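Researcher: Sequence of AAA family ATPase follows. Predict its structure.
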Amino acid sequence: MTKRAPASRNTKLFVLDTNVLMHDPTSLFRFEEHDVFVPIMTLEELDNNKKGMSEVARNARQASRTMDEIVSSCAADIADGIDLDTPSRELATGKLFLQTEAINMALPAALPTAKGDNQILAVVMHLAERFPKRSVILVSKDINMRIKARALGLDAQDYFNDKVLEDTDLLYTGWRELPPDFWDTHAKGMESWKEEGRTYYRIKGPLVTSMLVNEFVFQDGESPLQAWVKGRDGRSALIETLIDYAHSKNNVWGITARNREQNFALNLLMNPEIDFVTLLGQAGTGKTLLTLAAALTQVLEAKRYSEIIMTRVTVPVGEDIGFLPGTEEEKMAPWMGALEDNLDVLNGTAGEGGDWGRAATRDLIRSRIKIKSLNFMRGRTFINKFLIIDEAQNLTPKQMKTLITRAGPGTKVVCLGNIAQIDTPYLTEGSSGLTFVVDRFKDWPHSGHITLQRGERSRLADHAAEVL
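Model: Prediction complete. Tokens:
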């Protein structure tokens, strides 16, 4: 460890648990002016987890390579700490310390020293005693590890850098209700005109600065309004009224919107100018049904896209799904029950024609839907496709980037998910890839987001979602 006292007592010393490096290999550079300490046990656990093709194994290898580059570039004694400003391109100005000596710390008898977590805790205890005037903090994604550290009187915290939001209640919903006095405060100097059956308003007022492009606005009352913001220029905003998909004449593959948010979602799904759509909502809000109905209409009727590609996270993500027996589609079939259920509903709306007609329609529909595994997405390009990513809340931001960057010319990407149902270890509502893209894509003219709130599956499902 370092042979001299730290230059500044205000800087903290963060001790990294293995799961932080396996979650974010660049975490070494995320502590700004503070110092980072990596125990030998962390390196040992990285070594144990580096084999395989899973996301965790890839991250372990990347973290090891990053540390190798940092140590190789250091001309000074490692025990004095390695400056991170050059390797991190000035993202971090602290130092990296590697454990360079054996630490024999007496742990409580109830904690077995053979366990890796407890050896890391021993290192934190040693550092806290060695630098009593400095903040020594354990950083871990493991809740039990943090509880044990606090029980021993040590500082411990979660790794926050990957979190988009601390509070998911602050996540962008994609819509806002206009106040009752909206037109009184925004109608001064307003321009209004009609074009291709839509009404446009150019408004100015106090709310305009907080509006985002493709955000939906609505007002209930005597003269209800449902519209979306199509552009914002300084202090003025352009608002366009919506197509009413709740009316049967505007049905999408026989499906009509049952509530306001579903109408907003269909306006996004059916608009060719919107390349990227995210739909959040609990079970039964209609995410998959609306998306499939819009996809079938635009593939089979409008011929806007050549085919539908559907993929979903098979937790654990990235593990080998095997080669024999069965094709990629057959292996994915057990995960695709939601697709089959929704096709049953949509096939029932395809008109009469008896059993033969329905069977023929179903075969036609099924031939235009391809089911793909996430494992084989890297390096692919989808041209003129309607790409549906289901259960997207289980993706990390890195995996989400890998998927969305597959989109070629003319492709529309739709991400569906419920951030309250995350199954991937160490992912939380705040750090999910779905939360990440919702936050990063807001206000881009070719993307839109809607949080669906009202369940439409059945009264039983709605009640269960509320009380269970």
